[in-house]
Amino acid sequence: MNNFSCELITAYIGLGSNLEAPVTQINSARLAINQIDGVKELAFSSLYHSLPMGPQDQPDYVNAVMAITTSLGPLALLGGLQAIENAQGRVRKGERWGARTLDLDILLYGNTELDLPDLKVPHSGLAERSFVLYPLYEIAPDLFIPNKAALADLVAKCPLDGLRRLD
Ligand code: ROI
C-alpha cells in the first residue's frame, strides 16, 4: 500500500427493525449507510419478514442484508452504523434482546476475525439466525464464513423459522 491507494474491504451488514414502520426504517438506513464517507453499496437483499428471536412479547421483524465496500476500519464502520441507529431513534434500554427501531450489525468484515469488547466478527449469532443467513445467501451464495463453514452449508442446516420474503 502507498499514500495514494487504500485497501477496500467487502463487508456485510445485517439490518433489522420491529418498531415504528420497520420497512421505512430499513429503507432509510440503507440510504444513510450510503451516505457514510468511505462506504459504497455493492448489493442489497430482499426485505424479509421474520418472527422474533428472543422474547416473544414483541412485534415481528423486518430484516435484510447489505453488502458494501469500505475504506473504513471495522471500528470506524461500527461508529458510523451506531450513529445511524441513534439518529433513527434507537433507545438502548437494559433489556437484552428487546424490540428496536433499528439494529445494524457488522456480520462480516472481509475475512477478518475480531473479538473486541464492542465488536465480534464474524457476528456470533450468525449460524443460528435464519433472518441473517437467508438474505446473506441471496446476495452472496458463494461466501465462506471465516473459521466456520461455507454459507451454503450453514443455510442448509438452518430452519426457516417462519422467515419469508416480503413482496
Ligand atoms: N429477531 C428477528 N427475527 N430479527 C432480528 O433482527 C432480531 N434482532 C435481535 C433479536 C432481539 C435477537 N431478535 C431478532 O437483536
Task: Explain the overall architecture.
By secondary structure, the protein is of the alpha+beta class. It has a single domain (4-165), classed as Alpha-Beta Plaits (2-Layer Sandwich). Helix content is 27%, strand content 25%. It contains four helices and eight strands, in the order E-H-E-E-E-H-E-E-E-H-H-E. It has helices at 22-35, 74-87, 130-139, 151-157; strands at residues 9-17, 39-44, 48-50, 61-70, 103-109, 114-115, 120-121, 164-165. Strands 1, 2, 3, 4, 5 and 8 form a six-stranded antiparallel β-sheet that branches. It has a two-stranded antiparallel sheet with strand order 6-7. Strand 6 and strand 7 (120-121) form a beta hairpin. The longest helix is centred in the first third of the chain and has 14 residues, at 22-35. The model has no long low-confidence stretch (mean pLDDT 94). 7,8-dihydro-7,7-dimethyl-6-hydroxypterin (ROI) is lined by residues 16, 50-54, 61, 63, 97, 103, 131.
* Share of helical residues: 25-40%
Category by helix and strand content: alpha+beta
Mean pLDDT rating: 94
Which small molecules are bound?
A: 7,8-dihydro-7,7-dimethyl-6-hydroxypterin
In total, how many beta strands? 8
What is the class in the CATH system?
A: Alpha Beta
Q: Architecture, CATH level 2?
A: 2-Layer Sandwich
